[in-house]
Amino acid sequence: MAITIIGAGAIGGVLGAYLIRAGETVIFCDIAEDHVSKMNLHGITIEGPDETFTVKGTAYTPKQLVERNVPLETIFLCVKAHHTEKALLPFLPLLTPDSQIISLQNGLCERKISKMIGEERTIGCFVNFSADYLEPGRILYGGVASLYLGELDGTISSRITVLKEKLQCWGPAQVTDNIWGYLWGKMSYAGLLYATALVDETMAEVVRRQDLRGMLMELCSEILEVADKLHVSPLGFDDWEPALVYPREQRNRKELEAQLEKLAKRMAANKKTKSGIWRDLAVRKRETEVDAQLGDVLEIGKNNGVEMPLLSALVDSIKEIEQGTREMNWDNLYELKKIYESLPTKAS
User: Fold this and answer.
1) Whole-number Å distance between alpha carbons of 30 and 36
2) Which residues form the Ketopantoate reductase N-terminal domain (predicted)?
3) pLDDT in tens, 51-79
4) HEC assignment per residue over the chain
């Protein structure tokens, strides 16, 4: 199986490096010419919590890969959610009826991909490990976390089982018959992560703020209510348990508080203590994925009659930080808390 990794940054770089080290046939494709050049000349280096290693890689820019004109068998799509369509379009002529694209992205990107190439060539993936692109040829890896592969219709096919086995060289990849459950569970978690990026502080420190927890959990509940409207059962992962957050009326405060403490402890122990969203805003000074992730949820929610005042305000605040009209500050979170306190009905 020849694997093409489109987007050789944090996620794509880590998985590609582990697969190459295991002897798999992998090529990288990335728009950053200096990154491509570095990988071809010196390889790609992964700096993880347990080891640092370098593997030689073959890499192309998108233009070079198109000009190579070789059909693409298996694609790991690892670009930012808002680049999905633009990243895939050049390669559509290189796809065959048997090609398969696995979305190792944040968001509900499988919806867009399947519209472009058909559900039969789209494989869903939930991935939650943390990593950062540091510089050309160098990736910071936070360590193993959950990764699930799933067909969009919920069947357990031989092709996702084969992929799972290949990814064991990285870690405990698994298959699921409810990939949408994991993707929506991740979306509810994304709401929490975007909120932590409103302030220049670690994720753990925000989650530990007792006086903000009611607001944060209502924010996540808005997203989970949309999933409920779609008859999706969100699933938990890595100390994030959507079932403890929603439905609101079934929330057990004591159990939820204990779970959030576990989550904060996990966040504090991770090599990456601030989110990729924070890094986009504070370090790389670029647009986040907020429109392609939470913006999509807002649109789906609107179409299903779900009111989302907190999520809407959060998206606006993130975009204002992107544009430089708002600064990261604790006040941003307390503005959301005021909205939360004004809601006529809410869980505590």
Assistant:
1) 6
2) 3-153
3) 999 999 999 999 999 999 999 999 999 99
4) CEEEEECCCHHHHHHHHHHHHCCCEEEEECCCHHHHHHHHHHCEEEECCCCEEEECCEEECHHHHHHHCCCEEEEEECCCHHHHHHHHHHHHHHEEEEEEEEECCCCCHHHHHHHHHCHHHEEEEEECCCEEEEECCEEEECCCCCEEEEECCCCCCHHHHHHHHHHHHCCCCEECCCHHHHHHHHHHHHHHHHHHCCCCCCHHHHHHCHHHHHHHHHHHHHHHHHHHHCCCCCCCECCECHHHCCCHHHCCHHHHHHHHHHHHHHHHHCCCCCCHHHHHHHCCCCCCCHHHHHHHHHHHHHHCCCCCHHHHHHHHHHHHHHHCCCCCCHHHHHHHHHHHHHCCCCCC
pLDDT tens-digit map of 80-121: 999 999 999 999 999 999 999 999 999 999 999 999 999 999
Measure the CA–CA gap between 265 and 259, rounded to whole angstroms. 10
In angstroms, rounded to a whole number, what is the distance separating the alpha carbons of residues 323 and 335? Answer: 19
Q: State pTM to two decimals.
A: 0.91
Torsion of CA 240, 213, 319, 303, to 10 degrees: 70
* 95-99, 129-133, 189-193, 325-329: least confident range: 129-133
